[in-house]
Specification:
The protein is of the alpha/beta class. The protein has a domain of 211 residues: Vaccinia Virus protein VP39 (Rossmann fold). The chain is 35% helix and 18% strand. The protein contains 15 helices and 15 strands. Strands 2-3-1-4-8-7-5-6 form an 8-stranded mixed sheet. It has a 7-stranded mixed sheet with strand order 11-10-9-12-13-15-14, with helices on both faces. The chain is elongated.
Length: 506
């Protein structure tokens, strides 16, 4: 198969982890950037990247690189593309924008210019135009602008890859699945010990740990990927990837989760069951003041409340209690904590051996490692104990570079676009809003008559493929071998642990 350029997007701080995943997957020409990793691969690699990667947010396929000094340059460059390769008049599409430029101060303005260029191309070529759809489009495009450098890409993922598909409920402030997987990979957990999260919330870290320990790829739960609506979609190739469970493995240890909130515990249990990993996860209601080391747990990773969306009457007291319980109950293990406020870390009362700057959403957080041991540090080291690994020392050396990039990231969230500054922007915005209003009204009318304008193959059961999974009742899971995307038998595996997904996929 022909190789082409691909870009895997991720969160700042997880780039090296993602690059390692791509190396293990067999990608070529891997290069680490800021919140992204570029690589080369063929169609199968693109499918596998979407299906297998745990720390990628989406996979983009660039179709044009160009320079632009203004909106007209963007329009001309996009208009010059042979769009019949990618869509037609019956295809709905949407445009996402990422802009880091003094010249382009309105990301929506850029999106409107791209949309207009594509619409004008088809209007000139065919006399008709494709439809724009913000939600659930057939094709999603992405344009990235860094000063004058522009990259226009096809989004092969569709919905963000953090939307695994196993979550049936969530608490007040669930951690992103991609970030949760990234924390586990950053910790270096080798799956040869029990694992615990004393502030488990809706169980995201627990489920991601179990999937990783069993090497169950996150794509197994997805309803669909963006590339399934591309003109060159190869269903047989995707089915081959989907039905290959040869890399999965047994996990001979256990994962424990605790939370004071009973509702959160129930949600976490439901999510673990939905993911088919409840056999190796125990989740219980427990106050952190009663925390004791479970089993032979040597790895603790947790995301306690920060006092933002979830708070406590005595937030610092909560961290103080947590630190005291770790000191007395988790000797001989590693504890990793992600949090937002320095006061919270200080309240733990323990000296971290390693710090990794990360973002949880827009919050400027740190992921800190606490090497738990009894006695004095000198005695621990004399006995062969290691506070920092060589890899951790190298990462610490990269911390300065990361901090230098934080300012630009924070400004992106802090600065709001002035929509009234550019008259042309206002005109385009109003034009597109009116068009979207008309199309939405037309779509609603069509739906009332039993059809949906501009969205082909709306009866998904008639499309065949992986939406026909047999049993509608998720709780009555049969053996895994019954879950073939085309209705046949799937090879052995781990018995009745998951994957009755007809409800979720239909």
């Amino acid at each position: 198969m022909e190789q082409f350029e691909l870009i895997a997007k991720t969160f700042q701080g997880l780039e090296e982890v993602l690059a390692q995943e791509l190396t293990e997957l067999g990608a070529d020409e891997i290069q680490i950037g800021r919140r992204m990793v570029s690589f080369k691969g063929d169609q199968e690699m693109m499918y596998r990247a979407n299906f297998c990667l745990r720390t990628a947010v989406r996979i983009l396929k660039p179709i044009k690189h160009f320079k632009a000094k203004g909106a007209d340059d963007v329009y001309d460059a996009v208009r010059s593309i042979d769009w019949k390769q990618y869509l037609d008049n019956n295809t709905t599409f949407a445009v996402d924008t990422v802009v880091f430029s003094q010249e382009f101060r309105h990301s929506k303005f850029v999106a409107y210019k791209v949309k207009d260029a594509i619409v004008d191309y088809f209007r000139d070529e065919t006399g008709d135009r494709p439809n724009i759809r913000i939600t659930n489009p057939d094709i999603r495009l992405n344009i990235h602008i860094a000063e004058e450098k522009c990259t226009l890409s096809l989004d092969s993922s569709g919905d963000s890859l953090h939307l695994r598909g196993y979550r049936v409920g969530q608490g007040e402030a669930p951690i992103n699945e991609v970030l949760a997987a990234g924390l586990i990979k950053l910790s270096g957990w080798d799956f040869n010990s029990d694992f615990v999260d004393p502030f488990c919330g809706s169980g995201t870290i627990l489920v991601e740990a179990a999937l990783m320990a069993k090497n169950i790829y996150p794509g197994i739960f997805r309803k669909t990927f963006g590339f399934e609506k591309w003109k060159d979609f190869d269903r047989k190739l995707l089915d081959k990837i989907y039905n290959d469970d040869s890399e999965e493995r047994e996990f001979n240890h256990h994962i424990y989760g605790y939370d004071l909130n009973l509702r959160a515990v129930e949600i976490a249990q439901a999510n673990a069951k939905s993911a088919g990993v409840s056999d190796c996860i125990t989740i219980e209601q427990k106050d952190v003041k009663d925390f004791k080391k479970p089993g032979d747990a040597k790895m603790l990773i947790t995301n306690p409340p920060y006092g933002e969306r979830i708070t406590s009457p005595d937030l610092l007291g909560l961290y103080k209690t947590f630190g005291r319980r770790m000191k007395h109950e988790f000797q001989g293990g590693e504890a990793w904590v992600i949090s937002y406020k320095e006061d919270c870390f200080d309240a733990i009362g323990l000296k971290p051996s390693f710090k990794i700057p990360l973002y949880n959403g827009s919050l400027d957080c740190e992921f800190r490692k606490y090497q738990m041991f009894s006695g004095k540090l000198d005695e621990f080291r004399a006995g062969g104990g290691e506070v920092k690994t060589d890899e951790e020392r190298r990462r610490m050396a990269e911390k300065k570079r990361f901090k230098q990039n934080r300012g630009e990231f924070n400004n992106r969230f802090a600065n709001k676009e002035d929509e009234d500054e550019n008259p042309e922007y206002t005109v385009l915005r109003n034009k597109h809003r009116e068009f979207e209003r008309v199309m939405n009204r037309r779509n609603r009318n069509d739906e009332e008559r039993g059809g949906r304008r501009g969205f082909r193959n709306d009866d998904r059961n008639d499309r065949g493929g992986r939406r026909n999974f047999g049993n509608d009742d998720r709780n009555n899971r049969g053996p895994r071998k019954s879950f073939n995307r085309e209705g046949g038998e799937r090879r052995g595996g781990f018995g009745n642990k998951r994957r009755d997904f007809k409800k979720s996929r239909d």
